[in-house]
Amino acid sequence: MILHIDMDAFFASIEQAINPRFKGKPLIVGSRPNKLYTVVCAASYEAKRRGVHSGMSSADALKLCPDLEFIAADQSKYIWTSEEIFRSLKEYGYPLEHVSIDEFQLDIGTHPEPLKLAEDIRKQIYANFNITASVGIGKNWLLAKLASKVNKPDGSCQITSDNFQEVLRNTPLDKLCGMGGKTGAILAASGVKTCWDLYLKMPGYFTQNPSKFKETPDGPKSVGHSYTLPRASGNPGVIRAWIRLLSEMVGTRLRQQNLLASTVHLWLNGPQIGNFSRQRASKQVTSDGFELYSRALKIMADLGPGLPKIRVLGVTASSLQEQVYQPFLAEEVRREDLVKALDYINRRFGENTVYPAQIRLIQK
Ligand SMILES: [Mg+2]
Questions:
Q1: CATH T-level fold of 2-8+77-169
Q2: What pLDDT, on a 0 to 100 scale, did the predictor assign at position 213?
Q3: Which of 65, 77, 232, 264 could be a cystine partner for 295, CB 3.0 to 4.6 Å?
Q4: Which of 97, 103, 215, 291 does the annotation list as catalytic?
Q5: Which CATH class is domain 222-362?
Q6: DSSP 3-state assignment of 92?
Q7: CA nearest 243: which of 287, 284, 290, 276?
């Protein structure tokens, strides 16, 4: 049995725990220290209840909630808390995984009273850190993670063979790991709205594969490539071609290691902008160079209109996980087949036998 711990509104809760002024108030944690021009990276439950969610612009969040409190993200605080929680969970003596900064999994074997254990853990976290967690229990990691969302925030749930159908019926598809964004939208359009609908079509998705414990491999934490131009260039075609090339190289390396990434990081350096370094997380994991490139371009759009001169570029993919499932939507399958074929040709006949035409611009 797997026990999945998911911290509730982690970054925002930590800020509220540290600063009582924020307690009980709608609060957002912004990725940069500018209340009016940033992206929400976490929202407190008070803010969530008013429609604010992570990923939206702070300007939109303020429209929904004008009395919103704001604080800029301080990664070191969150990493420290996450590591301390990990350390305290280790004392339970079960195999333990750090799934992400705010998620942990224990393999509790055949523990006789898993729900009681869940309550112990939640109490201990609250006593030590003054923040709440939700816990889910299931016979594999996918179900455990899903269960952690059932009574979120500040609750726990065990999916058993008795309540399996009921829980899946009551859980919209977007709560299922890997079903965010585009995939969920396409499935919803074909009538798959709840986890139960999906189960009826693909029972294996819930019961097979994900019995293996590890979600994050012991491999690299990130995969990146960077390049320094001989001289700074403000030519958008050239800069985009380099970002494409670097993204394709990152994608190739991810696929070689059977990894998928959900966060893309773009780093640019130039005489006018100095260091521009920003990352963006997405619900949808990918190892497709073109997708990485599209996401990097969205980050670059933060520079505003008119491209400044750029000398150094870097593209990095992080928040890595092993690819457990093959895609099953027609359009994703087609895309993956294409990428696989290109990988095969490049492996067989040498690197860069086939490459995107866009890159020709920077090849001599
Ligand atoms: Mg969480």
A1: Alpha-Beta Plaits (3.30.70)
A2: 52
A3: 264
A4: 103
A5: alpha beta
A6: coil
A7: 290
- Ranges of each domain in the chain: 2-8+77-169, 10-75, 170-212, 222-362
| pTM of the predicted model over 0.90 | no
Q: Going by DSSP bridges, is the β-strand pair 222-233/310-322 parallel, antiparallel, or unpaired? A: antiparallel
> Distance between CA atoms of 125 and 119, rounded to whole angstroms?
10
- The residue whose two tokens read 């969530």 is 48
Interval between CA 9 and ligand 1 midpoint (Å): 5
Whether residue 215 lies in the annotated active site: no
Residues of the chain where predicted confidence (pLDDT) is lower than 50: 211, 215-217
What would the two tokens of residue 46 be? 């008070």
CA of 90 to the centre of ligand 1 (A): 19
What the block records as the tokens of 214 is 């590890």
CA-to-CA dists, residue 133 to 34, 87, 121, 310, angstroms: 29, 16, 9, 44
Beta bridge partners of 264: 280, 317
* Residue 86 token pair: 């990990």
CA 79–ligand 1 middle distance (angstroms): 14
| CATH class given for the domain over 10-75 | alpha beta
